[in-house]
C-alpha cells in the first residue's frame, strides 16, 4: 500500500483531539495500571498532559536526527501481559498492545551525538499524552535504546484522516496467543511527520516496570484511517492507555519548529 501524503489541509480538516471525558476515552483507561502492579513513586512518570501554556520554547536544543529505512519487514505481535492466567488469551489487559519488532540497523536516531536504536513500535488507544487535557484517538510509540540501555521514545498522536503508514500495521493486528505476523515493505520514516519539531521531556515507561529516565519526544500528530482506529478498538474495547501523571517540577521544552503544530491543535 502506498503512503498517503499528509497534507496540511488534511491535518487542519481532521477532528484532531477530543475531550478526555468524551466517548472516545473509554472509562477503563482511567485505571492507573495493571491491577496488582506496584504503584511507582510519582516523580518522573509518563504520560503527561502537554499543557500548551506551560511549554517552554527551547533554545539550542540538540537536533533529533532520524535514520529510518523506508522498506523493511517488521514482526507484528500481540504483547500479552497475562500469559499465566487461564483466560489470558482473551482477557484484555490495559498494559497489552500490538507491537512491531524492528530488525537491528533498520532504524536509529541521534540526539546530541548519542545513537539510539529503534527496537519496536506499538500503539495505544486513546492517546496516552493529552494536549490541554484532550486525547487523540490513538498514539504510536517508537521505542529506542542506546548501547547503555538508556531509552528514548518518539510519540506520535494519531488522528483520524487519510490512511497513513500506521495503517499498514493496524490492518493486520494478530490475535493474542498466536504467532507474530511479518509485515513486508514498511516505510519506517513515513510513520513520523516530515518536520521533527517536538515537545521534549524526561519521563518513564508507561507500563510495568515504569522505568524512569526515558527521553520523550512528542511529535506532530499524523493521520490514520477511521477503519484503522476502529480495528484497534475492536482489539482493545476498553483501551490500553495509562492515565496522565503529574508533571511536577519537570519542564516541557519545545523545538522552535514545534510551535506551528502546537498552535493548530
Ligand atoms: Zn507505549
From TrEMBL:
<keyword id="KW-0862">Zinc</keyword>
<dbReference type="GO" id="GO:0008270">
    <property type="term" value="F:zinc ion binding"/>
</dbReference>
<feature type="domain" description="Alpha-carbonic anhydrase">
    <location>
        <begin position="19"/>
        <end position="265"/>
    </location>
</feature>
<protein>
    <recommendedName>
        <fullName>carbonic anhydrase</fullName>
        <ecNumber>4.2.1.1</ecNumber>
    </recommendedName>
</protein>
<dbReference type="InterPro" id="IPR023561">
    <property type="entry name" value="Carbonic_anhydrase_a-class"/>
</dbReference>
<dbReference type="InterPro" id="IPR006311">
    <property type="entry name" value="TAT_signal"/>
</dbReference>
<keyword id="KW-0456">Lyase</keyword>
<keyword id="KW-0732">Signal</keyword>
<keyword id="KW-0479">Metal-binding</keyword>
<comment type="similarity">
    <text>Belongs to the alpha-carbonic anhydrase family.</text>
</comment>
<feature type="signal peptide">
    <location>
        <begin position="1"/>
        <end position="30"/>
    </location>
</feature>
<dbReference type="InterPro" id="IPR036398">
    <property type="entry name" value="CA_dom_sf"/>
</dbReference>
<dbReference type="Pfam" id="PF00194">
    <property type="entry name" value="Carb_anhydrase"/>
</dbReference>
<dbReference type="InterPro" id="IPR041891">
    <property type="entry name" value="Alpha_CA_prokaryot-like"/>
</dbReference>
<dbReference type="GO" id="GO:0004089">
    <property type="term" value="F:carbonate dehydratase activity"/>
</dbReference>
<dbReference type="InterPro" id="IPR001148">
    <property type="entry name" value="CA_dom"/>
</dbReference>
Amino acid at each position: 500500500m502506498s503512503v498517503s501524503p499528509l497534507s496540511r489541509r488534511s491535518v487542519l480538516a481532521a477532528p484532531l483531539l477530543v475531550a478526555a471525558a468524551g466517548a472516545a476515552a473509554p472509562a477503563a483507561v482511567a485505571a492507573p495500571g495493571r491491577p496488582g502492579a506496584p504503584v511507582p513513586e510519582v516523580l518522573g512518570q509518563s504520560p503527561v498532559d502537554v499543557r500548551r501554556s506551560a511549554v517552554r520554547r527551547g533554545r539550542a536544543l540538540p537536533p533529533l536526527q532520524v535514520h529510518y529505512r523506508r522498506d523493511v519487514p517488521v514482526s507484528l505481535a500481540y504483547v500479552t501481559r497475562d500469559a499465566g492466567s487461564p483466560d489470558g488469551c482473551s482477557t484484555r489487559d490495559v498494559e497489552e498492545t500490538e507491537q512491531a519488532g524492528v530488525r537491528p540497523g533498520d532504524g536509529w536516531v541521534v540526539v546530541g551525538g548519542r545513537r539510539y536504536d529503534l527496537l519496536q513500535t506499538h500503539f495505544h488507544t486513546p492517546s496516552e499524552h493529552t494536549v490541554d487535557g484532550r486525547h487523540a484517538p490513538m498514539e504510536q510509540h517508537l521505542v529506542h535504546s542506546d548501547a547503555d540501555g538508556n531509552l528514548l521514545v518518539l510519540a506520535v498522536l494519531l488522528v483520524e484522516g487519510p490512511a497513513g503508514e500506521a495503517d499498514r500495521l493496524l490492518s493486520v493486528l494478530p490475535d493474542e496467543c498466536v504467532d507474530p505476523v511479518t509485515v513486508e515493505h514498511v516505510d519506517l520514516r513515513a510513520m513520523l511527520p516530515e518536520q521533527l519539531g517536538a515537545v521534549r521531556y524526561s519521563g518513564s515507561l508507561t507500563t510495568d516496570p515504569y522505568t524512569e529516565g526515558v527521553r520523550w519526544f512528542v511529535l506532530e500528530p499524523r493521520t490514520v484511517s477511521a477503519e484503522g482506529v476502529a480495528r484497534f478498538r475492536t482489539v482493545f474495547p476498553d483501551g490500553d492507555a495509562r492515565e496522565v501523571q503529574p508533571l511536577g517540577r519537570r519542564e516541557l521544552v519545545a523545538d522552535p519548529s514545534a510551535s506551528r503544530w502546537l498552535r493548530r491543535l
